[in-house]
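[job 0412] stage=fold_complex status=start
inputs:
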Amino acid sequence: MASPRAPLPGLALAAAFLVLAALPLLLGASNYLLGLLISALILAGVALAWALLGNLGGMVSFGHAAFFGVGGYASALLAGKLGLPVLLTVPLGGLLAALASLAMLPALRLSGPYFALAILAYAQIFRILATEASSLTGGAAGLQRYPGLPTVFGLDLASRPGAYALLVALVALGCLAYAAIRRSALGLALRAIAESEDATRVVGVNSVLLKAWMLALSAFITGLFGALNAHIIGFLEPDYAFAGSWSVLPIIASVFGGYRTVLGPVGGAVVIYLFDQVVAKGLIAVGHQILLGLLLVAMVLAAPNGLLGLLERKGGARAGA
Amino acid sequence: MRDLILQALFSGLLIGGVYALVALGLALSFGAMRIINLAHGELVLIAAYAAYVVEARGGVSPYWAIPLALAIVSVVGAVLFLMIDRIREHRELNSLILTYGVGIVLTNAVLLAFASDVRTTTAPALQDAVTLGPVYAMAGEIVAFGLSLVLMVALWWWLKRSWYGRAVRAVSSNRAAATLMGINPLRTELVAFLVAGALASFAGVALYTMSVVQPALGHALTVKAFIVTVLAGVGSIPGVFLAALLLGVTEALTVTLASSALQELAGMVLFLLVLFLLPSGLFGARARRG
Amino acid sequence: MLRRALVAAAVTLGLAAGCPARAQEARPGTEQQIREVVIGAHMPLTGSLARSGQAFDEGMRVAVRLFNETAQGLRIKLQVIDDESAPAKAVSAVEKLVSDGAVAVIGGYGSNIVGPASDAANKLATTYITAGAVSDELTARGLKTFFRINNNAGYQRGMAGLIAELKPASVSILASTKEAPALLAKGLARDIGAAGIKVTVHEFDPAISDFKPLINKVKLQDRSEILLMSAYENDYVGIIRAARVLKPPVKLVVGAWSLATPKMYTEFPDLMNNVVGTSFLPFPVAVKDEEGRRFAEAYRQAYGKDIEYLSTLSFVETTILAEAIAKAAEAGTLKSGGLPETLRATDRRTLLGPVKFDATGDNPLFSLAMGQHRSGQIVLVSPPAAATGPISYPALPW
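[job 0412] stage=fold_complex status=done
writing structure:
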């Protein structure tokens, strides 16, 4: 924590989100732009879940793709094979991802990079299991024919504007939940654990149990967005559902935006994704990721606290002068 | 069956030798600076492409690429080090992002320069079969294994006996105390980083002479190297070597006894088991639990 | 200092990349009487499939150039976007291409990419053609705007046909667990097994780097007569190298796509001799028709190498699409959604054999010949109708 700040009131946060959310729809953005924003918001959801685990649980994960893939496969299979309604299977996908996090309980005792890599190993193991369990998952050939998002109250969630609105709402909900936990007494205990686990153990906080809950919550959110992504894209295969980029990009987005804040990961995801796809791709058709790499390097050197940290510092300097 | 298992053990040892070569550099920079260099695999990749250039364009043995690879990788490594050194806040996490970014830049630079065709040595002498009783290998693999063994011993000796090697160990165990003893920590870390780069150079050339190289390979190498480092535990050079051999043998035995589709799975399960059951790695000295 | 250098580097790169693009945009305006039509394409130009995407890209560019040289009153412009092998990015690419005015989209590589991307194109009522997605699921959707010139069945027919001609007692299939190779291996195992031949399938993780333990199983356990590979270039090199060291008692090494190409022989001369793979042209290119000769010539001129399998696939799909666009433009139906019907009426011989589209957009006539590397030449050895010479059998690279 750099400096104690007054927490953003939930209402203001929600209002800011709604205004931002309505903007592209009101301005009549093209399907192309909405499509990019949808991808960016899915990334934002995972980034939020990743940052939650980091801030409240003190755990850095390199393997959130594990939860993303489990959520996607669970929801697609429940909807496609059992015929359950998609609006039910998406949260179930999240729940199953949370359930999968139980397999990682032994890893909670590990510290720092060791925990991070243990989760990465889980992501790889899940990917291989999805490839091998071909009678259930379709193996390497993947899953294709399962339902997309439905129409609810006249709003076609499968259309670009519908999916966009849904994702904005869910990302906002995620932010509110995150902010609420952070402010609660539980959040205080959790942040204390993140700072120093030994000290909190002395004052009688059951740190392992709390960490397990945070891991499950983070997995739930990630699985939820994985499930949504599966229904929006309409095709799943192990290499895609458990791709390393679902682990890495959220970290980059969070750190880029400022992972210690609630809104940093979300802003980071949107900025990074749009920069890479619109600006960098426009400049260099092949190998445009090189610009993303340079941006990351420049960012770490120039603004180690992320975009929000940078804005704050600029604001602070101006106020001081 | 006996011949199958013998061949699996032998092949596993040979591939483990290269894993060790890649992992030694990563382990050194991790041990000395507490920095996970996510661009380490890309340093190996650059060296492998140097070998390709020397062989395909220069028409000589790829081993002649070692000086070229050392030069290029040292320059890239030094720049990388200077950038890492500028990080002031949240060093562990930010250095991850920084080195990951550099990795992306290097991978795409290789892609732009060499396109994405698969590359490997075409020298017949390196591809020829070597028979040792019931087991077989490619000549290039034997050379690479020998190289790995020699470099492991050299590194071990360097850390143990040379002034700089001892300085690296001193800085790694207590930076403040080492500074008081008159060691320049910055210069010491730079030396460790450059030695890690040199190991990556040898690894890249060795990889090119025995396996297939393409631009997307760098990241996979980094992950494999880190798994080896964690298996070994921090602070043991022969440990890294043995852990790499163990990983190679486990993978090869999985192919022989079960299915080749499960090779990666076996490696990961071994990794998790060691992580959970042996808190300080197979050969390490320090605990890794929170 | 360092920060400034980085910024300077980024700006320089940006400018260097931006300038030629702007220069190109300025040109078309000068020839006003010629109508310009944009074909969009999304290809994996970076990432693990970049090799395939770049070969496709080259074939498309040559096809467009040759088409523009002879076309009357119509000029085709190609706009290619890197889809990075990511479905969401391929969908975005389709949406961008269509909003930029592309009349049709050429699809990338991999069924998981082509599936969502062609769905998006269908929603935008835009014709979509591909040569890089072989899954049967794609044509089972019954999209009216979806077309493809190759499919799993065609590769399967070519390879299983050769095996049926050779009548070995047993076959070992080494298959990557990636989507297309896994599908092909499954189909092959079924076909070959049905012919009463013993089949053993060994699936391998694409991350594998040493094939010796696997080849040793073929050598000591399967003792098969033919080694079949359903994989990609890097796997072929690894497998044949391992086989060259272990020398299993097989009589022939057979593979799928991108193997029986002059390029593979030039790059790996010690590994390729006598190896058989799916092919469509003998080498040296004894192209009988004018089209193939022009393509080979233009390709060599542009890229300094001989045509290869993937670039030919994309050359054919692009040419067929361009011709359909020209026809639809002439009939005045290009803007009113007449392109799919015009494309469906395609019936022509191509470098890959006859091409025709059925109601699902599939090309039921797709079937490949099998070519054998012979000391730098490629001889078509199967099926008998396409053969330019007898097969060397038993014959091995070592």
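[job 0412] summary: Residues 1-7, 317-321 of chain A have pLDDT under 50 and may be disordered.
[job 0412] exit 0
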